[in-house]
Amino acid sequence: MTPHVLPRVRWTSAVLLAALGAGTVRAGRRLRAVPVLPAAPPVSAGVPGAAGWRLLTARGVEPDAAVFLAACAYADREGLRVLDLLPGDLPAERALGLLRLVDPARYRGDRLGEGRGAGFAVLVAEEVLERAGAAAGGGPGPDAGPAELLALTRRLKEYAAGATGLAIAPGLSCGPAAGGAGGAGRAAELRAQGLPAGALAAAQLSGLALLAAVALRQGRWGAAAAGLYWLQPYLVLGGPGSPLRPADLAGATAARPVRSLGAALRTAVAAGGSRDADAVRSPGAAAAYRAELGAGTGRFFEERRPDCPWCGSGPLSVRVRVPDLLQGKPGRFTLERCRACGHVFQNPRLTPEGLEFYYRDFYDGRGGEGAGTVFGRLGASYRRRAEMLLPHTVPASWLDVGTGHGHFCNAARDVWPRTRFDGLDMGDGVCGAERRGWVGTGYRGQFPEFAPKLAGRYEVVSMYHYLEHTRDPLAELDAAAAVLPCGGHLAVELPDPESRMARLLGPAWLPWFQPQHQHLIPAANLREALADRGFTVLAEEHGPAHQGNDFFGAVALTAARLAPDPDRPWGPPPTAGARALAGAVRVASVPCFAAAAVLDGLRTAAARYTDGGNAYRMLARKDVP
After folding, report:
1. Which H helix or E strand runs over 334?
2. 600 burial type by CB count under 10 A (0-12 exposed, 13-18 middle, 19+ buried)
3. Domain that holds residue 478
């Protein structure tokens, strides 16, 4: 009797088939979740007035009055201030791309999520346009293309964080703008959404090559995976209940592999031939940095101190010596550890002039958008910080010290919608946070200087990853004690210098964060300092405060050390060799980043289970006047 032989499974094809199948189902589910504008009712039926609204469109897109009134009625009814309209004939690949980026069920509620849209028409409340600086000449002109509309939608969501939505407008047509954008146009549209055009084009080409390989070499499983990719546009958009009717659906499905290959190649060429404006080396900035560095970096450092700034003890040991791995600016930095109390501090310490130099172009200017993107992806961490207070108090007023661009305050409103959040920081990002409405009032300056003015005005003061940046953390704690009344709460989160990863990764451990971090404080030291100031620690968390970036950060810092950005204005003039080396390191680091992401996931799970991460947070109540 012949034994039954199971068909041989080609695992690469099976994994691709599963991933494509899951993506197809997800896209279909998301499409069904996109609201569809109803036909506009007659004016006599009480359509809300259109006053106070503006409908901005890409060139060639001509909405009629019915679409405009229907959009205004829907936005008023749903409490929206920004509404991106998806034309009913939205091209297939544009629709699929948007559905990959946006989950309509969560889009409005994600206060930190990127603003996304189709890039053809967006309805905006005039007051939002005014606050965003796009009301008079600050927005896209009459000849704007989809890239300009995409950039505007991304910007507007920051000013209407919980009041931005999208909807399908069946009566709206893309018009001439529906045609292919070309390589340069597609690259510009990706960059307008804050996406790396070159990296995405490379990923698409790699994916197409993998599909072709499995289709040719792995029999029916490979053919099934390639076939599912081929038919995906029709499977998602071609059903009888689909609210979108792409005019190019048949062609987009029939010629998908060829079209995708051509689009990826053109985008890769366009992305390689141009760089983002912020990444291009500015001759003026380069000259200014060159003049500033002509006098050397010695003036950026104070004299080395022989004792610990925390406890005053003398025995010190070098913990780590590193260059500036964050930006690649000249200089070398030493962190020393006190053998008596374990406090780790920068020695010699940067002067105020040095701090200004090394912070410049990191959180604002050249690096501002990148920093904002990173902070915008920490929503879950921000909510956990806010939730720490749930068992202890219901705050009416909250001051976030070191608020940066106000991301925490924006996200914390999901937990505390009736709390007034104000922010304080040295940078001008706090002013932008006030303009966007992420904080009620933004104070710009040093916390100890504001303390007398702010005394008794807040029930909660928070310092999330702030103390390690300060020149004198004990003075900052004194300021918090002066501001808070008895019964007030202080929330602090810090990197943990006693983390096992600090020893394992050495100079590549991201939380060393030189040259910005000047003090890394062990948890026992912070508890003692709080007790000295009349605080009682109510809660302490280590695992939940863990930031899952140990291995990913180590790869990023190592790659930056091997091949710094050739276009940095404080570096030498870029050469073809430097650009080639940077490109080669970026390509070689891709699998390292992938492996690091897996390791960080495992490390985060272990940190949660063992309550031992790379950071800790404390909540303390002030009990002594």
Report:
1. strand 332-338
2. buried
3. 365-622
**Local confidence band at 269 (pLDDT 50, 70, 90 cut-offs):** confident
Residue 117 to residue 192: CA distance in whole angstroms? 11
Q: Same structural domain for residues 155 and 45? A: yes
Give me the pLDDT at residue 579, please: 85
Buried/exposed 150-183: b ≥16 CB within 10 Å, e otherwise = bbbbbbbbbbbbbbbbbbbbbbbbbbebbeebeb
Give the mean pLDDT of 393-416.
96
User: Residue 8 has what pLDDT?
Assistant: 61
| Mean pLDDT computed over 578-588 | 86
Averaged pLDDT of the chain: 90
**Amino acid in position 141:** G
351 in the same domain as 440: no
List % helix, strand, coil for the chain (3-state, nearest 5): 50, 15, 35
pLDDT given at position 270:
86
Q: Rounded distance, CA 411 to CA 385, Å? A: 10
Check pLDDT > 80 for residue 169.
yes
Name the domain count of the chain.
Answer: 3
Within 360-496, residue ranges assigned H as helices are 368-376, 379-387, 407-412, 429-436, 447-454, 473-483
Query: Tokens 């509404």 appear where?
Result: 83
The DSSP 8-state label assigned to residue 7 in this structure reads: P
| CA of residue 282 relative to chain centroid, distance | 25
pLDDT in tens, 181-224: 677 889 999 999 988 888 888 889 988 999 999 999 888 888 99
Looking at the fold, whether 377 and 500 belong to one and the same domain comes out as yes
Q: Which residues pair with 282 in a beta bridge?
A: none
- Claim to verify: residue 319 and residue 420 sit in the same structural domain: no
Residues 358 and 356: their CA atoms lie apart, in Å, by 6
Residues 324 and 374 in one domain: no
Judge contact between 316 and 284, C-beta under 8 A.
no
Give the DSSP H/E element, type plus range, for residue 197. helix 197-217
DSSP state of 135: S
Q: How confident is the model at residue 2 (pLDDT cuts 50, 70, 90)?
A: very low
Length of the chain: 625
Whether 10 maps to a domain, the answer reads no
The predicted structure's pLDDT at residue 42: 55
Look up tokens 């995405």; give the residue: 200
d(CA 268, CA 261): 11
